[in-house]
Design brief:
With about 100 residues, the chain is mainly alpha-helical. The protein is built from five helices and two strands. About 60% of the residues lie in helices and about 5% in strands.
């Protein structure tokens, strides 16, 4: 599923505001994101069209909640360092 940047921002804002127990409407989303009210309304409309939010109630649907939760988990997950196998002393001496 591809969401434009405005819809992604609104999705994240709805998730964050809901998780905090804060009011969720277009104006609170606009304040939370720093975007104009028109963009918050447009983002809600795009999320509703994708089945991720209920625009009238400014709430995430179950699909939207799952998507936002997965994004949140990915953001919070510790980054794992790529492990590179150590070269043996014999291989290192051949390379030199």
């Amino acid at each position: 599923m591809h969401l434009d940047p405005t819809a992604k921002t609104v999705l994240w804002a709805l998730f964050d505001l809901s998780r905090r127990g804060a009011r969720t409407d277009a104006s609170s989303i606009a304040r939370h994101t720093g975007e104009p009210l028109e963009l918050a309304v447009a983002g809600l409309a795009r999320l509703e069209a994708a089945g991720l939010a209920d625009r009238a109630r400014a709430r995430l649907t179950m699909r939207g909640l799952v998507l936002a939760s997965c994004v949140d988990a990915a953001r919070r997950a510790p980054t794992r360092a790529r492990t590179v196998p150590a070269r043996s002393a014999r291989a290192a001496s051949r390379a030199a």
